[in-house]
Design goal:
The protein has seven helices and ten strands. With 231 residues, the protein is α/β, with parallel strands linked by helices. The longest helix has 16 residues, at 173-188. The strands form two sheets. Strands 6-7-8-3-9-10 form a six-stranded mixed β-sheet, sandwiched between helices. A four-stranded antiparallel β-sheet has the order 2-1-4-5, with helices on one face. The protein has a single domain (31-56, 85-222), classed as Rossmann fold (3-Layer(aba) Sandwich), CATH 3.40.50. 32% of the residues lie in helices and 28% in strands. Helix 3 crosses helix 4 (117-127), helix 3 (100-110) packs parallel to helix 5 and helix 4 (117-127) packs across helix 5 (143-155).
């Protein structure tokens, strides 16, 4: 599903070169639930951007679902993102004056995919337990409910992977637990999940944890006893 080999990412700041990633190797199979962890400056965000096709490596190779994406153009990367990756961010990024249903429909609208669009969006909302809130605007929803809408939006295109970047960062502890249990349940149903987090309590739900330090993977292995979702 995700095949990263020898990936290096270097940023130039004037005459200074910053090596954000240093020859990183990472493979993630279909159906896995992987948490990527690391302190600020570890390379975690850079790796997330590359996995999410928001950036490209300076060197090395990256294949997503069998497609070599390391050297694609910006337009090609945008197409891959729309078709292959469902994003859930710390900020919900919902359109304020649109209904939950319309927010979930947006990836299909951008893709020009009109076939059964409303039905597919409603099915995605039902999958996250919000079919009864389809016509509510974000201001009429709690933070946890807004993030559920964001999860539904990520699912509606049936992407190869869901990339969740600090999805509980703006939520209280109760809502955080609801969202991570929902994501865990989606994985148990077969969805591939890549979770970016700095919280050990959230990473406990993943079945594998990858830790970065100074642009290098320092540990990568399964958790002996991941927390099981109750939903």
């Amino acid at each position: 599903m995700i095949e990263i080999a020898g990936v290096t990412k270097t940023y130039r700041m004037g005459s200074l070169e910053v090596h954000a990633l240093k020859r990183v190797d990472l493979n993630i199979e279909a159906g896995e639930f992987v948490a990527i962890m690391g302190a600020s400056g570890s390379g975690k965000s850079t790796l997330m951007n590359i996995i999410g096709c928001l950036d490209v490596p300076s060197s090395g190779s990256y294949a997503l679902d069998g497609i070599d994406v390391a050297n694609l153009s910006d337009d090609q990367l945008a197409l891959i993102r729309n078709r292959k990756i469902g994003f859930v961010f710390q900020s919900f990024n919902l359109i304020p004056r649109s209904s939950a249903l319309h927010n979930v429909e947006m990836p299909l609208i951008y893709a020009g995919d009109t076939e059964n669009r409303r039905e597919r969006a409603l099915a995605a909302l039902q999958a996250v337990g919000l079919s009864d809130r389809a016509q509510h605007q974000p201001s009429e929803l709690s933070g946890g409910q807004q993030q559920r809408v964001a999860v539904a939006r990520a699912l509606v295109t049936e992407p190869a992977i869901m990339l969740a970047d600090e999805p509980t960062g703006n939520l209280d502890s109760e809502s955080s637990l609801e969202i991570i249990e929902l994501i865990s349940a989606l994985n148990r149903a077969g969805r591939t999940i890549v979770l970016i987090t700095h919280e050990d309590e959230i990473a406990r739900f993943a079945r594998r944890v990858v830790r970065l330090r100074d642009g290098v993977i320092v540990s990568d292995g399964p958790q002996r006893a991941p927390v099981e979702a109750r939903v």
